[in-house]
Design brief:
Blueprint lengths: L3 E6 L27 E3 L7 E7 L2 H8 L7 E8 L4 H9 L2 E4 L2 E4 L4 E4 L21 E8 L6 H8 L4 E9 L2 E2 L8 E3 L2 H9 L3
Parallel strand pairs: 3-9
Antiparallel strand pairs: 1-3, 1-11, 2-3, 4-8, 4-9, 5-6, 7-8, 9-10
Length: 196
């Protein structure tokens, strides 16, 4: 019997259930059957949507490079981001991955006029009165190591907070860090792939 969950991974939590010396893991927050694992990962210092399942077909469909699926990130960056920087993020830029130059795929990027409603982070972002911040939405179809952080840094606006808000039509909506929702196979396949 397959199980499907979506969770809001909190900040400073590893995307794994196995213990890791001194770092919190998913096991500290979520109680799921022993054979259920995360699909992909979110960095330790990133938050947001993660799928947990024991359905290996779903895992391979989502993670196979030929199956491009949209992932939307809400990103708080340092500084007042410029239209030029947004255009560069959309067009594709060169970032370094494991010492090799990688040209990012075209993305969708837009500035939030007002900060989106997101849960308070624990611990919070260090507030500096003289340095403003901006929030952007960045939609990618690829997931290289620390890609969003590398991209915003490359255009001159370092990432302060990173939340994966959605994967295709599956989204956090009003979830809070540590929340878990169980979904049916039909529902999750329909939201991710538009069909079973």
């Amino acid at each position: 019997m397959h199980s499907y969950y979506i969770i809001y991974k909190p900040y400073l939590v590893l995307s794994q259930f196995s213990s890791s010396e001194g770092k919190r893991t998913l096991a500290d927050f979520f109680n799921v059957p022993k054979d259920v694992y995360p699909v992909g990962r979110l960095d330790y210092d990133s938050e947001g949507l993660l799928i947990l399942t024991n359905d290996t077909r779903l895992n391979s469909k989502l993670l196979h490079p030929t199956n491009k699926h949209q992932r939307e990130y809400w990103v708080q960056v340092e500084g007042v981001i410029t239209g030029e920087a947004i255009a560069l993020l959309e067009k594709g830029i060169d970032i370094s991955i494991d010492g090799k130059i990688h040209r990012t795929q075209p993305a969708k990027a837009k500035l939030f006029n007002n900060a989106p409603k997101v849960p308070e982070r624990d611990p919070p972002i260090r507030y500096r009165q003289n340095i403003p911040t901006s929030w952007i939405s960045l939609v990618l179809t690829e997931g290289k190591n620390r890609q969003v952080r590398r991209m915003t840094a490359k255009v001159g606006f370092p990432t302060l907070r990173l939340i994966r808000h959605s994967i295709e039509k599956l989204s956090l909506d009003n979830m809070q860090p540590g929340d878990k929702i169980s979904l049916s196979q039909e529902k999750i396949y329909s939201l991710l792939f538009g069909k079973n």
